[in-house]
Amino acid sequence: MDEREQTLHTGHRQRRYDSYLRGGLDSFSDIEVLELLLTFAIPRKDTNQIAHGLLERFGAFPTVLEAPVESLQQVKGMTERAAILLHLVPQVWRRYDMERQKLTTVFATLESCADYLVPRFRGAREEQVWMLCLDAKCKLLDCRQISRGSVNSASASLRRIVEVALAVNASSVVLSHNHTSGIALPSTEDVQTTDRIRAALQAVDVVLADHIIVADSDYVSMRDSKLL
Question: In which region does residue 29 sit, left (phi positive, over 0), alpha (psi from -120 to 50) or beta (all else)?
Answer without folding.
Answer: beta
